[in-house]
Amino acid sequence: MAAKNRNPVAANPDTPGATGGLSASAPGSAKGAPYLEADGVGFAYTPGAPVLQGLTMALARGRLACVLGPNGSGKTTLLRILVGLLVPSEGRVRLAGTPLEAYPRGALARRVAYVPQETLAAVGFTALETVLMGRSPHTGALGFESSGDWHAAREALRRTDTERFARRNLEELSGGERQRVIIARALAQEPDVILLDEPTSFLDIKHQHGIYGLLRRLVAEEGKTVVAVSHDLSLAAAYADRLVLVSEGRVAAAGTPHEVIRPEVLSPVYETPVEVRTDEATGRPYVLPRPAG
Amino acid sequence: MNIRPLTPRRYVLALAGWVLLWLIVSAVAVVLGAENIWAWDSWEKARDVLTLRLYGVLTAGAVGAALALAGLAFQALLRNPLAEPYILGVSGGAGLGVILSSLYLTVMAAPVFGFVGALLTVAVVYAVAQRRGRLEPYTLLLTGVIMNAFYGAAIMLVTALVSPERRGEIAYWMMGTISTFDPRWWLVAVVGGLVLAAAVLFAFLAKGFNLVAVGEDTAGALGVPVDRLRLVTFVVASLVTGASVALAGPIGFVGLICPHLLRMALGPDHRRLVPAVVCFGASLLVVADLVTRLLEGIGGVAPPVGVLTAMAGGPFFIYLLRTRWRRKIEIR
Questions:
Q1: pLDDT tens digits, residue range A32-80?
Q2: How much is the ipTM here?
Q3: Cross-chain residue pair A144–B8, CB shorter than 8 Å
Q4: Burial of B317 (0-12, 13-18, 19+ CB in 10 A)
Q5: Collapsing DSSP states into helix, strand and coil, what is residue B9?
């Protein structure tokens, strides 16, 4: 598995903070300085029914973090707040030390990319046109693309190994191919941070590892900061530097895979017994669900 | 599929081509008609006939451009390929507003009431079809059908209460006509100006239309102020629809046919579609109006242009529903 040698976690595990902080040093940032942080974030779609409550987490630059948690625990809401689509009702999000609301829309879109978990909108755009949309925050009002924009789009296709699909309609591609194109669109934004909502849902095991291998490369080779929501605990543990376990809108646990992927941490949150083993090849933990009762 | 870079030069060249198409079609429509003009005819007669034809051509151009532009905008923002002013009931709402204004207030206020009727309809259709922040495509279309039925009943009620003479006028107007009996140049200028302003605005919003068509969260994360874009687009599309209905009555399916034919030719990029749909919509309705005038020359009576577009648009709608866009609607 490609992640083994590139992942700094096993060699240098950090200790999580008391609030579930994920402070970690990385090249290009001050030691321990958080790059993306949520500080006491709360949010409710309807008054009196909070989805997030006092959620605090921080991530240093150049890390891959996975947000875990049961259905309805607030993972997607957290991601939408981190990208600025939702404004928290309490607390605040900071990017590079600056509150998110201080960034103009365009400036924020040039720094943070979002890959939502959306059903396919079959509009008829080709893969290349889809990736070019990622240049939108960089283009003018009428949206004319420069040769630099086209170069960035081609480069994003190359990095995600989707060049051969460039002229094919997005609807004609398989789920895994399409997801790589959508990630290419995020790369074409040339962001510092990429947020992904369940990027491997509906994908087979080959494409799941393909996507996470790609995310790992983006972190290791380009210093991107990546946050992905996942329901697959073992997959997240295999690739992530840090895990954040969210339950009922709060951080239930956060830290390295070995600190979070533990039966006494997971079972109460998922309300189901689990068994955790360690993959001898990678040294990473993985989860075996145990039938209830 | 054209996926060459969209440069300012290509944009201007394409725009010039579309404008040229509209100018040629319009020139042909001014020259041709039910009544021939001969070299030995008096200058006054030739001038009067050509002036009336020019009025009809400009009216058809403004109305066609307005409806096609509104159709494109509704389809993009509602993320529904079957949305258009007539099917959504927006034209019906505008029609009721125009009729009420003409009967009980003043003709001058008709465009304003047309706009109010159109905007109220969009608000109702949007509110009813929305569930948890997402629009349900079939609910959207069904709500439009119900709104159309409601406006049809309301217009029938109003019609029943007026004199038999006005009743005939309203019934004919509701079919959608490019009438040259009572030229209202000022209204053509107002509608034409509105359409031009809307086209310029939508050209600047086209990048956002592309992104919203892909997904609202995607658009928001790429820096598009989705709520503001939606509000501005619905208000402006309702405005041009209301104004066009005040000018020519509710003419159906232009807003469906034009965007789809152009998508087949140019692809889904709204930056290319906005300038194209304005000129193509204008040209299409000018041609349709010319056909009705030529039929008048053969049969003595000009069928309303709205009947012609409905006869062409109805089957086209079914074709889209059954084949080309079926899967796309289901996916959403």
A1: 578 999 999 999 988 888 999 999 999 999 999 999 999 989 999 999 9
A2: 0.83
A3: yes
A4: buried
A5: helix
pLDDT digits (tens, 9 = 90+) for B55-92: 999 999 999 999 999 999 988 888 877 788 888 888 88
Q: Is B204 near chain A, with CB under 8 Å? A: yes
Rounded Cα–Cα distance for residues A172 and B56 (Å): 45
Which residues, in sequence order, are bridge partners of residue A46? Answer: A49
At a CB cut-off of 8 Å and minimum separation 6, what does B144 contact?
B83, B87, B88, B89, B125
CA distance A216 to A194: 12
pLDDT of residue A233: 94
Q: pLDDT grade, residue B4 (50/70/90)?
A: confident
Instruction: State residue A259 phi and psi, 5-degree precision.
Output: -80, -30
Under a CB-based contact definition with an 8 Å cutoff, are residues B244 and B306 in contact? no
Residue position matching structure tokens 């309702």: B238
**How far apart (Å, rounded) are the C-alpha atoms in residues B307 and B301?**
13
Q: Do A119 and B332 touch (CB under 8 A)?
A: yes
The per-residue pLDDT for A24 is 34
Interface test with B, best of A51, A100, A136, A147 (most B CBs within 10 A): A136
Chain A CB contacts of B223 under 8 Å are: 105-106, 108-109, 136-137
What is the DSSP annotation of A235-285? HHHHH-SEEEEEETTEEEEEESHHHHS-HHHHHHHHTS-EEEEE-TTT--E
Task: Please tell me the distance from the alpha carbon of residue A67 to that of residue A243, in angstroms, as a whole number.
Answer: 6
Contacts of A262 (CB under 8 A, 6+ apart): A276, A285
Q: Strand, helix or coil at A114?
A: strand
